[in-house]
Amino acid sequence: MNNILALFTKRSNWTIPYLIFLGIFVVMPLILIVIYALTDADGVFTFGNFRKFMQHPEAMNTFIYSVGIAIITTLACILLGYPAAYILSQARFNTSRTMVVLFILPMWINILIRTLATVALFDFLNYPLGEGALIFGMIYNFLPFMIYPIYNTLQKMDNNLIEAAQDLGANPFQVFIKTIVPLSMPGVVSGIMMVFMPTISTFAIAELLTMNNIKLFGTTIQENINNGMWNYGAALSLIMLLLIGITGLFSSDSQSEREGGII
């Protein structure tokens, strides 16, 4: 009995369920992806899955195209999301919290339902489904992921720094460019990661908004897995994971440098 009480009273033991969860649902799937990616259908170690990707023009072109769509979506979300987050963060904007909830409210609806509603909207407007509809759908679905981290960063910003810049003679434009924008970069970086990563890996939005005429990298992975090509699909998944990991690494380094410069 005492051992059981000691188990529950020790604070570090409360992390055990989370470690078990991470081990089963995060670490093990990643290990399986690596194993499948580095083996063939007979379980023999090989780099053939990666060579197949490099030698397959369609898969390579799809990968490059997906990165391009992700970059366009991310830039559009920054251009639309930063002004919205900045306006919402202003103290004189009394309904800011209500507006933030309105921006986040669509996220409570399943992404497939939102995308199907977008398809219905384009049908109603007699606008053809294709690349334009795909980019619109990407921006619509992932814009809140850009607004919210930037809004949080701007909300927590020390107003004394802005007042100091004004006291030093900076005009409103200089205050925004030289003070507010650099201090809000951690939120921008978080928003970029939250938009760029899922845009590359998604496939349902592309299938619905282009009638499966345009394939993204996530669609290629999904098709290979559905067709039983687990090894090649795992290799493509590992390539995508490596890209996301490298992007996250560079973002973390640049964010650390900015924070070090501010301090």
Write up what this structure looks like.
By secondary structure, this protein is mainly α. 78% of the residues lie in helices and 0% in strands. The protein contains 13 helices and no strands. It has helices spanning 2-9, 16-37, 48-55, 57-89, 96-104, 111-124, 131-155, 159-167, 172-183, 185-201, 204-209, 217-226, 230-262. The termini are far apart.
Quickly list its features.
263 residues; mainly alpha; 13 helices
> How many β-strand runs?
0
Low-confidence stretches: none
Number of DSSP helical runs? 13
What kind of sheet is the major sheet?
A: none
Quaternary: single chain
Strand fraction equals under 5%
Describe how the helices and strands are arranged.
Elements: H1 2-9, H2 16-37, H3 48-55, H4 57-89, H5 96-104, H6 111-124, H7 131-155, H8 159-167, H9 172-183, H10 185-201, H11 204-209, H12 217-226, H13 230-262
Helix pairs in contact: 2-13, 3-13, 4-7, 4-10, 7-10, 8-9, 10-13, 12-13
Short description:
By secondary structure, the protein is mainly α. The chain has helices at residues 2-9, 16-37, 48-55, 57-89, 96-104, 111-124, 131-155, 159-167, 172-183, 185-201, 204-209, 217-226, 230-262.
